[in-house]
Amino acid sequence: MAQYFEVHPEHPQARLLKQAADILHKGGIVALPTDSSYALVCHLDDKSAVDRLRRIRGVDERHLLTLLCRDLSELATYARVDNQQYRMLKMGTPGPYTFILEATKEVPRRVSHPSRRTIGLRVPEHAVAQALLAELGQPLLATTLIMPGDEVALNDADDIRERLGKLIDAVVDSGACSMEFTTVIDLSAGEPQVVRQGCGELARLGLG
User: Fold this and answer.
1) pTM higher than the cut 0.70
2) pLDDT bracket for residue 200 (50, 70, 90)
3) CATH number of domain containing 186
4) Distance (Å, whole) CA 79 – CA 102
5) Is 146 part of any domain?
6) Residue 133, in any domain of the structure
7) Cβ contacts of residue 42 below 8 Å, gap of 6+?
8) What's the domain range around 53?
């Protein structure tokens, strides 16, 4: 059964986040609150964890997974961006935006798009997600916690435990999240393309 960590939404307890980080380091799958919906997260470099993540979500290798980052300091390690793209990233981070970028060779092929060699990148504006990323010391691989056949993401920790308690390793509970998705912007092929309009306002990025 998944471990359950009830944390303060603005000042999460460090000892609980350390336990959650240890689970991730050991190949676990964790349900994590963000500034949009809950996300399922795992360690970037753990192939079996990535495979489990995809099975739980019911998606194949063509479904783009997202790097959940604390800030843009690690951007050059995982993505190639020009000055114009970087300015847009600065405008939208932290916040409820996912940016599709050209991946570098540092990104394992199993987590980038199989034909386009792209990766999603997101910097959440959520104290708990930020604190866990700081404790872990590296990005997490993430996907929106929406189950096969559902139309909306899960946003309640009790519901997540009930439905996924035997499939994942931990649930981090800091209260209900938004049920909205991130706004997705593709920056991998020249001009920005709006892939999905979510809770991130386009005007903040100078679009729309």
Assistant:
1) yes
2) very high
3) 3.90.870.10
4) 5
5) yes
6) no
7) 24, 27, 28, 29, 30, 49, 50, 52, 53, 140, 141
8) 3-117+139-205
